[in-house]
């Protein structure tokens, strides 16, 4: 027996299979367009009500939208997020429900998000 015959007759060919992988279905949703409105003013230390005309004029026209016109709102006073129970918003006005007014010079910022 020659080495050629030995190689051909006594070796088993490897059996290779390719695994079947189920297809992956992926859905891509484009993000919704979000409009962000902001109202900026500074507390005078006495008032607990802020109107659009009280906004900082250097920042352009300031608007306070009605809650029915936006999806979500955040109110920050002196950089601290306020609980929803502490204020009320209506078109053109923010009213604080707290006992005290914010300290004089404290920034009041209302963020409004429309989805």
Helix content: under 10%
Distance between the termini: 83 Å
Strand fraction equals 25-35%
**Assembly type of the shown chains?**
single chain
Major sheet: arrangement of strands: 1-7-3-4
Count the beta strands.
7
Structure class:
mainly beta
Order of SSEs:
HEEEEEEE
Largest sheet: 4 strands, antiparallel
* Rg over alpha carbons: 33 Å
Task: Give descriptors for this structure.
single chain, 115 residues, mainly beta, 4-stranded antiparallel sheet, 3-stranded antiparallel sheet, 1 helix
What's the arrangement of secondary structure elements?
Layout: H1 3-10, E1 35-42, E2 49-51, E3 72-77, E4 80-81, E5 87-90, E6 93-96, E7 107-114
Antiparallel strand pairs: 1-7, 2-6, 3-4, 3-7, 5-6
Question: How would you summarize what this structure contains?
Answer:
With about 120 residues, the protein is mainly β. It has one helix spanning about 5-10, and strands spanning about 35-40, 50, 70-75, 80, 85-90, 95, 105-115.
Kindly describe this structure.
- With 115 residues, the chain is mainly β.
- The protein is built from 1 helix and 7 strands.
- A 4-stranded antiparallel β-sheet has the order 1-7-3-4, with no helix packed on it. It has a 3-stranded antiparallel β-sheet with strand order 2-6-5, with no helix packed on it.
- A hairpin with a 2-residue loop joins strand 3 (72-77) and strand 4 (80-81).
- The longest helix is centred in the N-terminal third of the chain and has 8 residues, at 3-10.
